[in-house]
Amino acid sequence: MQRKSILTALAFFICTCLLAQRNAPTSTYTADEENTGFKKENIFIGGGINLGFASNTFALGASPEIGYSVANWLDLGLGFNVNYASQRADPYYNGNIRQRNFSYGVGPFVRIYPINVLFLQGQLEGNWSNISLKDMTYDQSSTYKYKSTSFIAGIGYSQRVVGQGSFYTLIGLDLMQDKNSPYRDYNNRAIPVIRTGFNFYLKPSHKK
């Protein structure tokens, strides 16, 4: 089931790329502009929604962010997240224990664009979670609070014009093994994370 979830996520990503490729914009950078120092028009804010799914697991969240386009091929920034995750009780999967997880976190990210419409992203996150467990067999409930660390690595498609705006879709996985991560399931397996959103530059450029 885990492999099926990852393949489904990848299929969704590929379809999104093919549909959006038709109207992909080009960058406003030139070779000379990359070395002219700090530019207010290169600061962006925005974010999007997060989706995650695996066997018996569903996750939904929001991921606001602020960043700076250092060059045509590089963005640096700080991302925030608020997530809700639900794991259905199943006697064969998780001992018939239902889990609800509300978490929030923050951490730096880097995006590298090997080509205009494709990027690689890494994001280190510190997360704080409130977890509610209910044993459906014995009708017993408990709650816990945890702190965890995640590192989400992924690949994404972007329609991006530096100084104007961008749209992106990302598929990633938490590469760390912290069992309390909001991006890992009851059995500590990584949940595929899909993020889709928009960014807007604070001082839009009118260059074409």
From TrEMBL:
Query: In the record, which residues are listed under signal peptide?
Result: 1-20
Q: Which superkingdom heads the taxonomic lineage of this protein's source? A: Bacteria
Q: Which UniProt keywords apply?
A: Signal
- Does Signal count among this protein's keywords? yes
Q: What is this protein called?
A: Outer membrane protein beta-barrel domain-containing protein
Q: What organism, scientifically named, is this protein from?
A: Limnovirga soli
Q: What is the lineage of its organism?
A: Bacteria, Pseudomonadati, Bacteroidota, Chitinophagia, Chitinophagales
